[in-house]
Structures are given as C-alpha cells and as structure tokens.
Amino acid sequence: MQNSPNENPPVDTGSIVQEIYREEYIPVQQIQRREEDAVFIDENPQIVLEKLMKLKDCHYKERLAFTKRLGELLTWIGDSAIENLNTIIQQILEDADEIKKNFIAQLEQICVLLKTKQNSQELIKQHVVKALQELLKSNNFDIKEQAGNSISVVAKELNERDRGNLILTQVIQMAHDDNNDENVMIAVKLFGQLAADFGPELSESFIALEILSKGDDAKQPIRKEAVLQLANIAKVLSKDFIKHRLIPFFSKKTEERTWQTRKACLDIIVKLAEQTDTENFDLITGRLLALLDDQNKWVKQHAYKQLGKYISIITRSENINDKLLEFYLKMNDSDIRELGIDNEIVIECALYFPAVLQVYTDKKWPQLSKLFMKLINHKDKVYIDNISLRVKKPLACSIHVLAKLLGPQLAYSELLKVLEQLLQDPNDEIKHGAVENLGLFFDAIEESKRASLIDILLIIQKDQKKWRIRELIAKQISHLAQVFDVETVFSIILPVSTKLCNDNVYAVRKAAAKQIFELYDKFSKSQNELYFSVLKQNILGFANSNMFNQRQSFVIMCEKLMRYEQFQVDFLEAFINLGQDPIKNVRISVAKVLQKHLFKPKSSVNDGLFREQTSIQTLWNLLIKDNIVLNSLNNKKYPFTIQQKVQQTQLTQSQIKLQQSEQQNIVQQQQQNLNDEEQQKVNASVSEQNQVIQNQELMILEEQNEKTNHIEQNEEQVKQEDEITQTIDKTEQITKENNYEENLQNQIQLESELNEEKQEVENQQEQEQQQIEQNEVVDNSQNLKENEEKEIEQE
C-alpha cells in the first residue's frame, strides 16, 4: 500500500540510530590520541620550575601550554621563579610567534605579581619592559601591535623618568624609521595611547606635533593612523592648542582626497566633539554636514551611522543645528538605506531615536513622528539576521522614555496605539521590551486617563504560555500600586497579583509575592478598612492553603511584610506555624526569610524588627537543627556561625571563674576579721564553704564539659554536613563528566544490540538452510535405499 502525498513516510528507526551513532561516535583511537597530545602540569612546583628553565627542550604543545599559564605558574611557584624569570623569558623570546603572542597576554598578570615584591619597579623594568622592547623589534606586525598595546599599560607602573628613557626613546626611533612603515604606524598609535601618561606639557611640545607631522605623511595608512589618535591627545591638550592647531588640522583631513582618511575622521568625530567648546563644536558640526553629502559611498554611509550618536551628545541649546535633523529624517529613505549593509543605517536610526527626541524636544515631534511610525512598521524584504527585530526592539524598550519626553497628552494620543501594536507583535523579544517598563509608561500618562489603560494589563497577563511576560508584570506590581488609585488597585491590581502569586511557575510566584507589601502599605494608609481587611484575608488564605506552593508564596510575602509592626498581630502566628510545615520547601523558605531578617545588616529603621523576639529565636534554632534546611541556607551572604555560641559559653565560663574568685576573697576577709576564740568554728565553716565551692566547681566543670561536648557535636554535625555537600558536589561533577561517556556507551550498546539482532537473524537463516539441506540428504538416502531394495526384489 502506497502512502498518500499528505501522509508522512514510514520511519526506519534502525537507520536513524545508526546515523546518529555515525555522527556522534568517537573512535577509541582518537580518544587515545587526544590523551597523548594533552599536556599535564605536575603538582610539584619544583618540577614545574625545572620544566620552565628547560622550556626550549620541550615539544611545541608543551611550550604553548606553559606559556598560556605563565603568570599563574609564576605566582604558584613563588620567589624561586622570580629569580629565574630572565632565563624563562629569554627562551620564550626566541620561540615561535604564536608562543610570543600568548606571552604578551600574560605580561599584565606578571606585572601584578612583580608589584607585590620589593623593588617592584626594578623588576618590571628588568623583565617586562625589556621583553616588550625586544618584541617591538619583531618582524611580525601583529606581535608589534600587541606589544604596543601592552606597553601602554605597563607604562603606568613606571615613573616619569623611566617612561621617557625606556619607552619614549624607542617610540621616537620607531616613528622616524623611514624604511619600515609598520614601525611608524605603531609609534603613532603609541603616541596617542601614552599622551595621558606623559602629561599636557610634553604632549603639546612634542607628542602632538609628532602626530600632526605624521598626518601629512606621503603614505595614506600613516596619515589615517595619525587622524585616529587626535581624540586621544585632545584629552590632555589645552583649549588654545585644540582651537588653533588640532581643529584646523582635522578640518583639512576631512577634505583630503583619499576617502579612507575622510572615513577615519568620522571614526573620531564624536569623541573629538565631546572635548571641545561651543565654537569648535560648530566647526566640527559643519564638517559632519559636509561628509553627509560626500561623493564616496563608504564615507557617506559611515557619516549617517555616526549621525544619531553625534546628535545625542548635544547638551547646549546653542549647538542645536536643524540641518542635522533634516539628514536624520532621511535615514529611513530607500536611497540612504541602500548605502549600508543589512540596514545598518536604519538600526542606528532606531537606536538613537529617544536621544534625538530629547535634544529636539516635542516641538519637532510632527516631523519625527512620521519617521517613528515607519520604524515601528518596518518589515524585512529579505529575512537577514531579523533586521525588523533590531529596529523595533530599541523602540519597544524605550517607549516609556518617549512618553515622558512627549508629555501626558501627546503620549496618550500618539503612543498608546503603538504600545498596543508592540504588545501584539509576534516576536517575543519585542513584546518583552514593551512589557518590561509598562508601569513607567502608565506613570507618564495623565492620571485621569490611566484607568482606561488597565485593560492592557488584564489582556497580556492571561496568556498561560508566556510565563516570562507574567514575571515582568509581577515585578511591576509595586510600581503599578503607586500609579493607580486605591479603587483601581483593589478591583484590578489585587486580583491580578493574587493570581500571579498562585502561578504555575515558581519564578512568577516569587516575583509577585515579593511585591505584595506595597499593596499592604497602600491599603493600610488608606481610610478604607474594608480593602485592608480583604487584603489581609487573602494573604492569610495563602498561609492556610492545602497547597504547598501557596503556603510558600505566603512565606515569601512575609520577607518584606516583617518591616511593619502590625505583622506581629496579623501574620506572625501563621508564619511561625509554617516553620513546622511537613513540606521541606516551605520550611526552607521560612528559614531563608528568617536568615535575612536576623542576620542581614540593617539598611533602614524597620529592618529586623523582631530579631529579639523569643518566638522568632526559638523558630530559628528549631529550623537549623534540620540538616536539609541548614544546607540550603546561604551562609556566605548572610553569615551565621556556631562560633558565636562557643564565644558565649566561653564568656559564661569566665564569669563563673570570676564569681569563684570573689567568693574566695570574701572567705579570706572573714577569716582575718574573726577572733582567735572563734577560729576553730571558722575553720569548720571555712572547710564546709570550701567543700561547697569544690562541689560548685565540679558542677561547673560538668556543665562546661556538657557544653563543650554539645559544641563539639554541633561542629561534628557541621563537618559531616560539609562532607555530605562536598560528596554531593563531587557526585554531581562526576555525573556531569560521565554524561558523555554514558551517551557514548548507550550509542555503542544500541549498535551492539542492532548487530546482535542482525546476527541472530542470520543464524536463524543459516540454521534453516542447514535443516533444509539435511532434509534433502535424508530424502536422497531414503530414495537410494528404496531403489536398492526394488533392484534386489527384481533380482
């Protein structure tokens, strides 16, 4: 029977298993080869040091492994490694380029190690700076560039004199190396990176002049690198130098014939504009407007990509140029979009839209609103990296900012429909961005019109498949309670909050339960006793529920409800009863809330109101006796230790000793004051008192022994619990490590089972064939016998 076209074809499970096995199976030989190629570092630091001393004699992979971890190994070995560091580094400098690159990456960690030693600057100069000087002479451009980046970091650890003698001298030599353009480019880059370390005086008198001179070099890559360093040196130059030397040079470079240099000017135009005054800012704005109309496609594209960021840094009203807005409004036009790849210009336009609106204010909203609606309705002609998501998501995440900038009336009339559209978007990331700050959007709307927006909240929280959206709403319950009036909070927010506290997902229940205190605070301050009593009954309903997750939600609510003194009257009894709940998750939640309440440092007056209460202390002592509860607590964040109990017992022991000494002093004084006639009686009484004191000491010693034994038992319990947790962690780690092996064994077992089944089928076929052949032999023999008998009869 043939399958219809609409039906799924039959699946051959055996072939699928074999295909999975072929894809996932790793031959044993390959595993053995990996083990042979692996590098194992010895646990003995002396042996590791000997390896490092003879690193050149090791094979390549071993040298590479030791170099990648050189900083860590030197720290581990200690002072003996520092003494032999020069020998180790010299071997690396003579090794392959890849090992040198990994060595440069370790220099910062080595510097940190050397800073902890005496004569740290001398050690850094002797080992690190000397090595970088050698690496800057390499023929590999990547190594020289990486060494240059590292030397700009190391320079901060040197004094001004050493920076000049050891670093600046070599950089100047590289800058004037006419036979090697790579050296010149790296030197120009180092001039820009080191300008802040050399200070404004040296930067103006020498470094800036060197960069400006290299900006007029005959070779385009050198000119481009000089332009890229203008923003770095501008940080340390005076305003006069920037105005008369730097800005004219920059303007000249924006008109240069080669488009690569003009594009480099756009790379630094925003940073340069941030460091200039009003007059220079206007000059830079003029150059940006010229580059937005550039004849070269790549320059024009890059200018549009920088436009939104450039407008966002405008902080003074005198710098606002309406021509910048005219170009910005064109960023979604088809001819401009086609300049970029994958709609990069449109994405930049959407990303900086709130900043542009902030600069030009709501007065320019009539022009900006058209561009805004085009961006909101953006659709991809071709699905490439989901461009629509990258355009809409920034707007969805910032719609509350737009509402605040436009004001209550425009926000209600212009953005409400947009919000509803974003909440219905099929893409969850866009929907999440709109929901995340929903409370702030409601806050920006006029108060008289907020009640009409509550339907949005009711609709979006109904989708049971979107638990992350429900979690975002739950986190905003506190803010929503502040935004709406008491009646709306009671009729809408309270039912939604109660539902979220009973959600199927724990993250939603937890987020909602933590926000209930805001409803409690709002209703307690209102004059409506009915609302307040209904809320308390709802909260107690969670405490008395037959479902453990509702009781757990009540415990989480109590974390912040315990800041109110009324908690003792309303909820304390229910909270204490749940400390003995049969479900361990509820008890663990009670212990965590108590731990924060008892041991979290106070940040306000209402924190830890019930710390001294006997019922709370008794409940805590009862809970920590449960090993399951004790192991679940975070002792690092909110530490509680048994050492405190030990200190208390030691304190009581010292007090008892003090009392004993006082009693003995009293007895001695009595002995001195008595007459000789009463001496015998006194001696008898003294002996009796001594006997009493000895009995007291014995009792005290017994109590001390009992307490110490109890403390030791507690310590042993803690040690056992630590051992249990360590074994659990080890077993979890072992199981994780063995998952792959188990999967591999399962795959091999599947294949072996398939092979066994196949072998059994073949054996059965062979047995049947043998049986047939035997039957044929028997039949033939019988026929022969019959023929022979017939012949005998005939004869």
Give the secondary structure arrangement, pairings included.
Layout: H1 13-24, H2 28-37, H3 45-53, H4 60-68, H5 70-77, H6 79-83, H7 85-93, H8 97-115, H9 120-135, H10 141-154, H11 160-175, H12 181-214, H13 220-228, H14 230-234, H15 239-254, H16 259-274, H17 278-292, H18 297-312, H19 322-329, H20 334-337, H21 344-351, H22 353-360, H23 365-376, H24 387-397, H25 399-406, H26 408-423, H27 428-436, H28 438-444, H29 454-460, H30 467-474, H31 477-483, H32 486-501, H33 506-513, H34 516-525, H35 529-543, H36 548-561, H37 567-570, H38 572-577, H39 584-599, H40 614-623, H41 627-632, H42 643-673, H43 679-794
Keywords: Repeat
HEAT repeats: 415-453, 493-529
Biased composition (Low complexity): 762-784
Euclidean distance between termini CA atoms: 63 Å
Helix content percent band? over 70%
Q: Count every beta strand, where a strand is a DSSP E run of 2 or more residues.
A: 0
Number of helices: 43
Q: Unreliable stretches, pLDDT < 50, 5 or more residues?
A: 1-11, 28-37, 641-660, 674-715
Biggest sheet architecture: none
Mean pLDDT across all amino acids: 81
Oligomer: single chain
Amount of beta strand: under 5%
Structural class: mainly alpha
| Overall form | extended
Cα Rg? 41 Å
What does this structure look like?
- HEAT repeats lie at residues 415-453, 493-529.
- GO terms for molecular function: protein phosphatase regulator activity.
- Residues 751-795 are annotated as: Disordered.
- The structure is a single chain.
- With 795 residues, the protein is mostly helical.
- 76% of the residues lie in helices and 0% in strands.
- Helix 8 packs antiparallel against helix 9 (120-135).
- It is extended and about 95 Å long.
- The two termini are 63 Å apart.
- Residues 1-11, 28-37, 641-660 and 674-715 have low confidence and may be disordered.
